[in-house]
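The authors assume throughout that readers already know how a fold can be written as discrete tokens. Each protein is reduced to its one-letter sequence and a matching series of backbone shape codes. I therefore recommend that a typical entry be quoted early in the introduction. For illustration, here is how one protein appears when written out as sequence plus structure tokens:
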Amino acid sequence: MTPVRITPPTCVLLDLDGTLVDSAPGITASAAAALRGVGAAVPAPAVLRGFVGPPMYESFRRTLGLDEETALRALTAYRERYAAAGALDSALYDGVPEMLDALSAAGLPLAVATSKVEDQAVRITRHYGLDTRLVTVCGISDAAGRTTKRQVIRECVARLRAHGADVGAPLMVGDRSYDMESAAAEGVPAVHVRWGYGDASESAGAVASVSGPAELIHLLTRGAYAPCGTE
């Protein structure tokens, strides 16, 4: 099979939920509790699972059709419950620490760019010992006016630049279409990972789609990988 090839990146932005961490249990339980708390109907588990990745406010508004006031109350309740009981109800995906070590050893500055509130993203990366492998962790911040993934990506690149990283060819890695679309809007190519929460259709617009950390290592350090173990 013909190898997949990309232009080697100079730095890598990594999504958190569904890319580094399997965080669905804590997110879905917190979302369900928040919806019950504001008197809104709790959707089916498959719908709740779709909330993992995009900003929660957008899921409440666009997916469930909540009005602005109810969605904001639900968002506040979600963040409170998630901070108290949901953030660490998660697990690292197999091979993630080794993947980060390999990319770092190849000289690639690494950062997290997530739609999760930044303080919780920092907490999670520290809990799993990922923070020492990262230049920065960038997430949603209401105080900073950073409420979309596109804004997070822009800020993350700026922080990498401020730390002296070469941002001439940044690359986003994520599992949801929201990652692909937001990166494209910032002129950043993206790689889709298939071990997260998005289905195959969510790889649209990605420069490549990989099935496991080993493939991602090969792609980002060699500029190519052979699908289905043909390399």
